[in-house]
Amino acid sequence: MGTGKRYVRSFFTHIDTNSWVMRVNPAIKVSYTFVFSFLPLQVFAIFSQHVVYAFYLNLILAVISIGLLIISRISLGRMRWLFFLIAGMLQFIALWNILFTRKGGMPLFSWQVGFWHDTVTDLDIIWALTADLGYLTMFTATMYLFLTTRDRDIASVLETIKLPRTFRFVVSLIFRSIGIFFDDLATAREALMSRGVDFQKGSILEKIRRNSRLGIPMILIMLRRATDIAFALDVRRFRMPNVKATQFTKIRFSLLDLVVLTILWVVFWFTLAVQLFRIDPLTLL
Amino acid sequence: MLGPDWLITLKYAKRSLQLRGNVMAMSMKKGVQPINIVILALCSAIATVLAIISVQLIPVVTIPGVSGLFLAAGFYVPFGLWWGIWGALAGGISGFLLIAAGTPVPLASFFFIGDLLEAVVPLIAFRVLKLDVGLRNAKSLVGYIIFGVIGGALISSLVGPTGIVVTAGLSMDAWLPTFIPWLIGDMIVIAVIGIPLLRILTPVIERMPGYVKGYLS
After folding, report:
1. How far apart are alpha carbons A237 and A243 in whole angstroms?
2. Which residues pair with A107 in a beta bridge?
3. CA-based radius of gyration for chain A
């Protein structure tokens, strides 16, 4: 007898259907990703003169977004290469801000390379950390969406916010096709390798040429599929402008869902208003 | 006398020809057709796959979502020339969908604009100057180099680094060191991949449904 565990596939991984992540409303996941992707930028803009406040706010955002990812208990093994890139990015952001940002404060040390010289202060370092935390928040919020959401969930959210059916169809088809084309790419690659093509050897330009050859069979496969799909749409009377169609999945909102969504969007619009109308944030705190 | 098997075969052949006729008739209709929408979606998917592959193959370690040589650009510029705005939009969408490769949403929005313009600029040039998409004469080849290779890459490399500076909270000092390698990388890819692609595949794609001679249909 099996354990009874069933898994569904999100964009990058498989999630246990009993996981709490699967019960979260997709509209909340999309809203959270969108809002938490822009909040760090708004913090940069609003608190650019108040570095310490910006640091604490971005720290709170980073703790929330990383914490959500951790308590989701999703396997991140396939994403190892991404975290390696992110580590590099965070170092670059920190170093650049330390060397080239001038936020005032207590001088800590000076540096000079050729004609360039500058003094690094405590606020420069805090701002560098703030920028790191902001980028980390944006990254983890985006990854949360792709790790915990299926393509049909995104289509359901688009239907909920009453976007046109043509737009929803395009988005669904894109997400479905990405996985299929990855498989086609692997097949084309193996076919070329069986004919003696070596993708690892040679200069960068030669590697580009060899890898770009994979695009030709993919384009031809794509054209054949496009013709079949377009014909299927014609047969099923898919018409433009949009005709009302029956939706297979519908999102239902509970009271808690509505409360969370309201909080997220109120925070977003409030910070945007503060930024646009140049309100001094310290008068609000 | 023809037996029942032959009759069934004939019926099937007749239906099959009718279906092909339907497809060809569909392609001869004017205006935006479902096939344009399908091509937009599938081109976006291919461009996104190639974009993610580029980031994995030749990553810029300090900037996730950015590749040292962005292979997708060599494809979506020709997509724009073959399928008009639908192909150009595919380029923009592939830039936005780099959120799947770790790019934050605000930065991906800049990539959407940059990549879209990168494909739109040569598209407009080719349509206005009535250049041959298959690059079958010197004038078209020179036009592609000027508006596709140089113009498109320039637009993209103006927008992309601006997005990186803005979203990563960097000072404007970081802009130029990001702009120059971006420009050179895109120019190489659009030339090395785009030119052979247009010369080899244009004669095939011109005959297929969905090919756009104008901007939308």
Report:
1. 9
2. A121
3. 24
A7: β partners:
A16
Decide if B49 contacts B17 (C-beta within 8 A).
Answer: no
In terms of DSSP H, where are the helices of B71-172? 73-96, 105-129, 138-143, 153-167
**What tokens does A156 get?**
């359901």
- In this predicted structure, the answer to whether residue B101 has a pLDDT above a threshold of 90 is no
Q: Distance (Å, rounded) from C-alpha B193 to C-alpha B191?
A: 6
> Letter for the amino acid at A151?
D
CB contact under 8 A, B105 and A34: yes
The answer to whether A142 contacts B104, with C-beta atoms less than 8 Å apart, is yes
Cα–Cα distance measured from residue B99 to residue A160, given in angstroms and rounded to the nearest whole number: 22
Collapse the DSSP code of B145 into the 3-class scheme (helix H, G, I; strand E, B; otherwise coil) and give the result: helix
CB nearest B62 (choices: A92, A223, A226): A92
Please state, in angstroms and rounded to a whole number, the distance separating the CA atoms of residues A70 and A67: 5
Q: Are A100 and B174 in contact (CB under 8 A)?
A: yes
Please state, as a whole number, how many other Cβ atoms lie within 10 Å of the Cβ of residue B77.
Answer: 34
B197-210 pLDDT per residue, tens: 999 899 989 888 88
Note whether A118 and A111 are within 8 A (CB): yes
Q: Within an 8 Å CB–CB cutoff, is residue B201 touching chain A?
A: yes
ipTM value greater than 0.90: no
> pTM for the whole thing?
0.79
3 state DSSP class of B132:
coil
Within 13 Å, how many C-alpha atoms sit on residue A87's CB side? 6
Residue B56, pLDDT > 80, answer no
Top mean pLDDT of A117-131, B19-33, B113-127 is at B113-127
A245 has a chain B CB within 8 A of its CB: no
Please tell me whether the peptide bond between A241 and the residue prior to it is cis, using omega within 30 degrees of 0: yes
